[in-house]
UniProtKB/TrEMBL annotation, chain A:
<feature type="transmembrane region" description="Helical">
    <location>
        <begin position="37"/>
        <end position="58"/>
    </location>
</feature>
<feature type="transmembrane region" description="Helical">
    <location>
        <begin position="160"/>
        <end position="179"/>
    </location>
</feature>
<feature type="transmembrane region" description="Helical">
    <location>
        <begin position="65"/>
        <end position="82"/>
    </location>
</feature>
<feature type="transmembrane region" description="Helical">
    <location>
        <begin position="283"/>
        <end position="301"/>
    </location>
</feature>
<feature type="transmembrane region" description="Helical">
    <location>
        <begin position="88"/>
        <end position="113"/>
    </location>
</feature>
<feature type="transmembrane region" description="Helical">
    <location>
        <begin position="209"/>
        <end position="226"/>
    </location>
</feature>
<keyword id="KW-1003">Cell membrane</keyword>
<feature type="transmembrane region" description="Helical">
    <location>
        <begin position="246"/>
        <end position="271"/>
    </location>
</feature>
<dbReference type="GO" id="GO:0005886">
    <property type="term" value="C:plasma membrane"/>
</dbReference>
TrEMBL record, chain B:
<feature type="transmembrane region" description="Helical">
    <location>
        <begin position="138"/>
        <end position="162"/>
    </location>
</feature>
<dbReference type="InterPro" id="IPR001851">
    <property type="entry name" value="ABC_transp_permease"/>
</dbReference>
<comment type="similarity">
    <text>Belongs to the binding-protein-dependent transport system permease family. LivHM subfamily.</text>
</comment>
<protein>
    <submittedName>
        <fullName>Branched-chain amino acid transport system permease protein</fullName>
    </submittedName>
</protein>
<dbReference type="GO" id="GO:0015190">
    <property type="term" value="F:L-leucine transmembrane transporter activity"/>
</dbReference>
<keyword id="KW-0472">Membrane</keyword>
<dbReference type="GO" id="GO:0015188">
    <property type="term" value="F:L-isoleucine transmembrane transporter activity"/>
</dbReference>
<feature type="transmembrane region" description="Helical">
    <location>
        <begin position="231"/>
        <end position="254"/>
    </location>
</feature>
<keyword id="KW-1133">Transmembrane helix</keyword>
Amino acid sequence: MKINKKTIINVIIAVGVYAVVQGLISGGMLSRQMTSLIIPICVYVMMAVSLCLVVGFLGELSLGHAGFMSVGAYSGALFLTHTELPQLPAVLIALLIGGSAAAVFGLIIGVPVLRLKGDYLAIVTLGFGEIIKSIINFMTPITGGAKGLSKIPLYTTYRNFTFVFILTVVVVLLVSNIVRSRHGRAITSIRDNYIAAEAAGIPVSRYKIMTFVIAAFFAGVAGVVYAGNIGILKPVNFDYNTSIEILVMVVLGGMGNIKGSIVAAVILTALPEVLRGAADYRMLLYSIVLIALMLFNNSPIKRAFMDRRNMRQAGRLQKEGE
Amino acid sequence: MDLVNSILEQLINGLRTGSIYALIALGYTMVYGIAKMINFAHGDIIMVGAYALYVFVGLLGLHPVIAVLLTIVVCSVLGITIEKVAYKPLRNATPLAVLITAIGVSYLLQNLSLLIFKATPIPFGSIIRVPSVKVGSLNISGITIVTLVVTTVSMIALTLFINKSKAGRAMRAVSEDKGAAELMGVNVNQTISLTFAIGSALAAVAGILFISQYETLLPTMGALPGIKAFVAAVLGGIGSIPGAMLGGIILGIIESLSKAYISTQLADAIVFGILVIVLLVKPSGLLGKLKIEKV
């Protein structure tokens, strides 16, 4: 990674955010409600950024992201409850196990479906989420079924904020570096025109599956952190609604914009807690936001706005050239 | 003899659920054929149909026949409105944008009914009161008979409509080539609206049959049958009308057999497993045509 102004600013922002939050935690200035939000925000940032890779950069719609999260959460949590290792290595191995398990599922789902186009993937990933839920319910002796898997050691609560924060930053950095790499350019070229990409010699299917597996891996990692924060896992925590919530974050952040996804994830995780009274209307609001954003993005108003901006930019460039 | 009987019973159960799936799948397939999009909100129109019936019969106390007709009208109008407001402005947008909008609409319908009718399930007895029939040692319930008759009649009517009527011909023309159809003087907007109206009317009928069978109303009740019907449409070959019927019935039978003989909890997983296998082995479905992409 080249060190330029942008990188330095990003580092400053990251360190700043960390310092402020850590300061608030150790100063005891946060209410219990606020501290309970810190780790979920990190989890959702990881989820949104990883889904952004699939929806924003690959241009495929995945509606089963919560399914991958649940695979990661359950496998990581099962390891944590049965291991006798000290905390740090246990968490690290759990993260690896959770991520890998989710990645394996991503591969199983991705290989048959990604050879096909968009709509099918959306439905299959949606169905996959349901399959996972019913399998978790079916394997009651291991997963606790509908009653939930409890007594998971709380290794990733807000007391371990430093660790979770570093992990989140690493995930964000990895994703943004993938996007900026040669592979990332291949991925975005598939989104823009897969026929042209194929003609240019890019192995489309392989890249699609690769992206899908990477996103699943990070979703699994986020799942482990989630499990270590909440202590009890239930299949209902990972239903269709959760997947949609993450999708709304990605869409609201501007598809294909990692920073936007992060900001949207932070806001949408914190907002419901702040606006407790309007809880009933939250999901309704989400759906309206989804429709309105899509309509706006494709409306003549937006196109005129973009045209004007492009014209201005072109004019500026022309002036510079003179 | 007992085993044969129980298998026969499951087959009839499967035929009943399967024909409801087929009705829903028809809506998916018709809309896909014409608008080249998956109408994610289609499943929720079933839910709206069921709630509308509940309001008309349970709350307003209308005569069932009038209530059924009103329900069908409500759903058709809803289908047309959704198309006009949410999908029409996106006709030239990327498939991803259309898909996300459709999910948004589906979600909107679910949450609106959640706000209006609350999350607690509402019990609602069946409006179909037909005595059951005994064939040999087999007992066929009244609902099953009505379901089978209604779906068969709807399917025959639909097939005749699409193959014989002028509007049906326009539909086929638009689904084959929108631009060319427009040049030939077909009113594309009207045809698309008509497709949504018919699809939603079929979903309303499916919703009425569905609620007569399960007798409980839930805001999310349309989601799962909707998805399964989509699986049925893919299984039969999306865009193909006979395919949707065949796919629905096959899926219903598979589901009922696996519920009875394998595991209730895994039945859904098996249904989606079938979808994956179909996509792997024959992506165009049983009766679908594979499209070759031209640049």
